[in-house]
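User: quick one, fold this
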Amino acid sequence: MEKTDALNAFSALGQDTRLEVFRLLVKAGAEGMAAGEIAGALDVRQNTLSNNLSILLAAGLVRNEREGRSVRYFADFDGVRGLLAFLMEDCCAGKPELCQPVLDQIACAC
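Assistant:
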């Protein structure tokens, strides 16, 4: 991941609603959620949600799939992995074993 991509991702997550949407989609896992479900769960207006989802999409943190007239959104775990890899790229002065506890804590079987 390039520095500008990381900055875009952090900028996207630096707003309350977008952070809530992202965390909700992470929690939803492989099932994802339809846009209407997200709006209902977070009590956010559709047009506000649409704008925030567009920003998260552009930042590479979520992805979407069309389902007929609806759109389902998912956390983009490849994008998240790229961001985490960027953050930990030079971890522990060349001693990656020192970072293992952090990696073990954030790893999941998703």
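User: anything notable?
Assistant: The chain has one domain: 3-106.
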